[in-house]
Amino acid sequence: MATLSIDPRVSGRTADFVATDHRMLIDGRFVTAASGKTFPVYNPAAGEVLTYVPEAETEDVNRAVAAARRAFDEGPWPRMSPSERGRTLWQIADLIEKNLEEFAELESLDNGKPFKVARVADVPLTVDMFRYMAGWATKISGKTLPLSAGNDFHSYTLREPIGVVAQIIPWNFPLLMAAWKLAPALACGCTIILKLAEQTPLSGLRLAQVLDEAGLPPGVVNVLTGFGEGAGAPLAAHEQVDKVAFTGSTEVGKLIVQAATGNLKKVTLELGGKSPALVFPDARIDAAIRGTASAIFFNHGQCCCAGSRLYIHEKVFDEVVEGVSHVAEDIKLAPGLDPSCQMGPLVSDEQYRKVVGYIESGITDGAKVAAGGPASGVERGYFVRPTVLTNTNPRMKVVQEEIFGPVVCAIPFSDKELDAIVKRANDTLYGLAASVWTQNLSLAHKMSRAIRAGTVWVNCHNVFDASLPFGGYKQSGWGREMGEEVLNNYLETKAVTIAL
Ligand code: NAI
Ligand code: MG
């Protein structure tokens, strides 16, 4: 094994956890991979190995599914009272909160994001998600239904857990994505196999310890570390899995759908985006500049709902582009644990190459660089400067494809195009989110209706809450996460009819 390196700024507890002999959680026990194989986890701020984690493959998947199957078919979890389940969820939230700093450090080390951001966003939102879903556990209910066939029957519906759920998550918000998946499935009484992203397994492995400490019965949540093909694919195809919930690329989302056909397991998907932000001339320009900059630069643009197409009315185009470019130039790039860090590195060498490749393709296709560019000026680590491109056209790859980095295309529109701007905003395979910047109430409502996306923000962007359903139209996905709506992902409806 190579010498492991860890940022000296992390606390002793975090350093100790990173250095432990990492184990997966299967059937209530912390175990190595059946093969004994491990793979490296990198610190993206240095490009160095942080530690090694088990590499799950088919055999580990089979064990985890068997454990989840037993826990669902025979175990106490689906049968206990909803209030007991709710209490356990609440306790998970308390334990995460108690270890908030450690989780934020792990997230920063492993993913590269600023520690300061993980501390006020990723971890508190995770805690909120468990608490919000703890409340739903006791509020899942069916209906009594009058029959057209007459009064000789008593009919009602039961809402029952869907069963054994496979959950496959990405690396952009490692802990929060785990919470978006686990909390509602647990509230519904499901049992789970969670596969963490291979780039960022550490906070999920720490979460596995918390789940164990909270007293979840064996097999209720099984946590695997491994790669997409080696562990994700056999999980998605498994005959004993009733449902797969996936967040990641649209490309892999389609593979998940194919893998699910064998036993027709239920599928929900939260996929890519190319979200528009629309700035109208009557917007509060300062707020629009700050807001649209944050729409793309938050989390280094590694958000499925990043505002990556910035449509600006020509009357304010120069002012907004200049403002967003200033914001971009002022952002301090540094390792996530550096107190001065405003933007850390991208998550991996692969993402770094992909994003720089997009910036270069934009330039080759004739776009102009108003801020940033392909060279980061930082010696080590996967850093990309926040970049603003102008002079694009709708056919360019940078305008069409999800970049998943801090790169925005600023595009002008005129009064003549006010109707056409809706078409342009909707001219994408995706339909995840959009933001509209205006003070005109009527325009705000009209745009909110006209945009084909699962989320529309007005005079804000990237506002998330456990109570707000989130998900995509078109190729951005199937189903919704969070809010009351997510419960549909993890429940079956049974109609019961009794002849009186
Ligand atoms: P990905 O879609 O390959 O990975 C997401 C998860 O799926 C990971 O846990 C991975 O191990 C798993 N996976 C990969 N192949 C699989 C397969 N055949 N069967 C089952 N599971 C599989 O995303 P990746 O490669 O990390 O990033 C590529 C691009 O995807 C990004 O540049 C970005 O455009 C997009 N993406 C979108 C996200 C979102 O939140 N919608 C999150 C992460 C990436
Ligand atoms: Mg991939």
CATH class identity of the largest domain = Alpha Beta
Structural class comes to alpha/beta
- Rg over C-alpha atoms, rounded to the nearest angstrom: 23 Å
Number of strands: 22
Q: State the end-to-end CA separation.
A: 71 Å
The number of helices is: 15
Query: What is the domain tally?
Result: 2
How would you sum up the global shape?
A: globular
Unreliable residue runs: none
Looking at CATH, the homologous superfamily of the largest domain is Aldehyde Dehydrogenase, Chain A, domain 1
CATH topology of the largest domain: Aldehyde Dehydrogenase, Chain A, domain 1
Strand content: 15-25%
Main beta-sheet annotation: 7 strands, mixed
Say which molecules are bound, naming each kind only once.
1,4-dihydronicotinamide adenine dinucleotide, magnesium ion
The whole-number mean of residue pLDDT values reads 97
Work out the helicity level.
Answer: 25-40%
Biggest β-sheet: strands ordered side by side in the sheet: 14-15-16-13-12-18-19
Instruction: Write the CATH architecture name of the largest domain.
Output: 3-Layer(aba) Sandwich
Helix-strand blueprint:
Elements: H1 12-19, E1 24-26, E2 29-31, E3 38-43, E4 48-54, H2 58-73, H3 82-98, H4 100-111, H5 115-136, E5 144-145, E6 153-161, E7 164-168, H6 174-188, E8 191-196, H7 202-213, E9 221-225, H8 228-237, E10 243-247, H9 250-259, E11 266-270, E12 275-279, H10 285-297, E13 307-313, H11 314-330, H12 349-364, E14 368-371, E15 387-390, H13 397-400, E16 407-413, H14 420-425, E17 430-431, E18 433-437, H15 441-450, E19 455-458, E20 473-474, E21 477-478, E22 491-499
Parallel strand pairs: 7-8, 7-10, 8-9, 10-11, 12-13, 12-18, 13-16, 15-16, 18-19
Antiparallel strand pairs: 1-2, 3-4, 5-6, 6-22, 11-21, 14-15, 17-20
